[in-house]
Amino acid sequence: MGKEEAILLLIMSAGAFIIPIISKRLLLPSAVGEILFGMVLGIFFKGFIEEVHILKFLGEFGFIILMYLAGLEVDIENIKKTPRFHLFGYTAVYVVIVISSILVVYYFRLPAIYILVFLTTAIGLLYPVLKDTNIISTKFGQRLLIIGSLGEVISLVSITIFAVYFESGISLQSLAHLLGLYIFFATAYIMLRIFQLYLWWYPQISKLFVQIGDTAESGIRANFVNMFVFVSLASILGLEPIIGAFFGGLLFALVFKEREQIKQRIASFGYGFLIPVFFIEVGLRFNIKELLNIDVLLKALALTAGILFIKFAGSLILVFLRIPIGQLILTPVALSMPLTLLVAVATIFMGLGVLDNHQGAIIIFSAVISAIIYPWIFKVMVKNIKLD
After folding, report:
1. d(CA 310, CA 331)
2. Calpha distance 63→309 (Å, rounded)
3. Distance separating alpha carbons of residues 243 and 75, to the nearest angstrom
4. Mean pLDDT across the stretch 73-96?
5. Rounded to whole angstroms, what are the CA distances from 304 to 79, 142, 300, 371?
6. 363 alpha-carbon distance from chain centroid
7. Which residue in 2, 93, 103, 236 has its CB near the most CB atoms, within 10 A?
């Protein structure tokens, strides 16, 4: 390890510790503070970032853990308890969001990749916002989590389909990739059923997957095995590793209802260092000179407004579910803070050459703006609405 690499890792480690404290005082999500910190570091270390291989490894590892935790956050039991009519309505919200995204991109003659930007939804930032406002246990909070979870699944599948299209176009290779996607889901489903059957016969084995505090930390090890099984399967089939990580976490959530403690332990490991490294690395690769470009700022603001507009169009479907008007207005705000997945979109498609540095900067800057503005708006507005 060279001197510059050691110094950069030291500064990043210190930043991963200090930045969340500063971000909290500034009322910023810690991920936003970490991206901004990475941008500042990029001024001094831009010249040799590509040579720091350990940094890229830690960032990718952090990203994989982040997506695995996103899968674990999905409350399958809550979704199962949701009335079918409501579940149909929540799905219809995303049908409208997808159609609206296509229409907006077509009308303004934007690159097709922006369909993905507009429809993307994630619960990575929504979950802590709901906890901070103490509404996560209300019907409204649970409704937002269900809609957000459905949107995150749709977003990740859409990212995969777009990646296949831009990588191979309409060809036999694309068909092979889509077949790989089908094989992935089919294999995951078969593994899920086999595992559920095995646990039905030997219920005592389930303790190994959720047990914490023992010398071997078997629960942590089992989760990492589960995560890398699906990450490896996705990679072998030519899919994005984050797809495997997310659905690995989702399937774990399907099998184990009592997973709160193990989830907290993995979150402590991930958010303690590796996930902050991922966000800092995103900032490092961002050209801070782009922030001085008024065109980037204006387009990022337009993109941020467009994301809210499209989510609002989709949320109008909730009128048919007789959702109170205050909650209906708040729903698109809650769905318009997809920081983690917008960063993922920029990272993945810049790597594929679909987005150039200028376009990537606009999307990342839009993700940062939405992560600052919309949580604040949500927290202010939620105080003045009636919750069920």
Report:
1. 12
2. 28
3. 18
4. 84
5. 29, 25, 6, 10
6. 14
7. 93
Residues 344, 345, 347, CA angle at the centre, nearest 5°? Answer: 60
Token readout for 239 is: 């899919």
Q: Which range has the top average pLDDT, 92-96, 125-129, 243-247?
A: 92-96
Whole domain around residue 81: which residue ranges?
70-271+287-382
Q: Phi-psi region for residue 385, left (φ > 0), alpha (ψ -120 to 50) or beta?
A: beta
pLDDT band at 366 (very low <50, low <70, confident <90, very high): very high
In a domain, 99, yes or no: yes
pLDDT in tens, 273-315: 888 888 888 888 777 777 778 888 899 999 999 999 999 999 9
CB atoms within 10 A of CB 83: 9
Domain count, the chain: 1
Residues 6+ apart with CB under 8 A from 190: none
Burial of 152 (0-12, 13-18, 19+ CB in 10 A): buried
Top pLDDT among 295 and 56 is at 295
- Given a cut of 90, whether residue 268 has pLDDT beyond it is no
- pLDDT in the model for residue 275: 87
- Please compute, for residue 59, the number of CA atoms within 13 A of its CA located in the half-sphere on the CB side: 23
Query: Are the beta carbons of 235 and 244 closer than 8 angstroms?
Result: yes
Q: How far apart are the first and last CA of the chain?
A: 56
387: helix, strand or coil: coil
Tokens (6 digits) for 286 = 């961002």
Give the whole-angstrom CA distance, residue 151 versus residue 79.
13
Q: What is the largest CA-CA distance in the chain?
A: 63
In a domain, 28, yes or no: no
Does the pLDDT value for residue 50 go beyond 70? no
CA 31 to CA 276: how far, in whole Å? 7
* d(C-alpha 173, C-alpha 337), whole Å: 34
List all residues 6 or more positions away from 203 whose beta carbon is below 8 Å from its beta carbon: none
Separation CA 360–CA 35 (nearest Å) = 14
The answer to whether position 5 is within a domain reads: no
The chain-wide mean pLDDT, for the chain, equals 84
pLDDT, position 114: 94
Encoded tokens for 138: 């209300």
Q: What angle do CA 81, 86, 89 make, to 5 degrees?
A: 140
The CATH code of the domain that includes 198 is 1.20.1530.20
**Residue 150 falls inside a structural domain:** yes
